Automatic annotation (TrEMBL):
InterPro entries referenced in this protein's UniProt entry, alphabetically: DUF4178
The name this protein goes by in its record: DUF4178 domain-containing protein
Domain of life: Bacteria
Disordered as annotated region, ranges: 1-24
Residues annotated as domain DUF4178: 32-172
Compositionally biased spans, kind Basic and acidic residues: 10-24
Amino acid sequence: MGWKDLLGFGRKENPADKGPDPLHDLTLSGLQAGDMVDFDLKTWQVQARHRYDWGGGDISFEWQLKSHDDVIYLQKDADDEAEWSISRPIAFGRLGPEIRDYLSEHDDPPEEIVFDGVTYCIEEMAGGHFYKDDRGPGKEFLSWSYADDSGEKYLSIEQWGETEFEAAVGGPAEEYQFTNILPGSH
């Protein structure tokens, strides 16, 4: 071993020694608060990343994305393969007073809901725990998922506590629709 070896001259760097490359190792699944991503001709900033625990090892993730004039939620469900969807929150009252009345009377929403001229049929009901920012103690909730006949439009209702309800509409998404992922300052 000569003096060049001791000082590291001529030594080739092993790429594995550097760790993850923040500009090349960005994936949709790896989005974190502060990251930026392009979708639907807009640039979105990740506001939060939440986790849903449905029990039995069934976990899904949700990212809140904000553009200059809109907020959407990107969800990833991983059964056998990752399934992505996008949803937009709507005021629960927009579903009509009959939905709240039906819930009060039956403890479940109706099997079919018509919203903005689209008929949605219930696909599943589930309960789980929600972890805001993927931390802290989980908050219990119930969820009802609906889809139209084509399976291209979704509607969901979530119940938090006895009387708090949220609703959202959306549809499936593909990972390739999201481009130009840039890291935030995390």
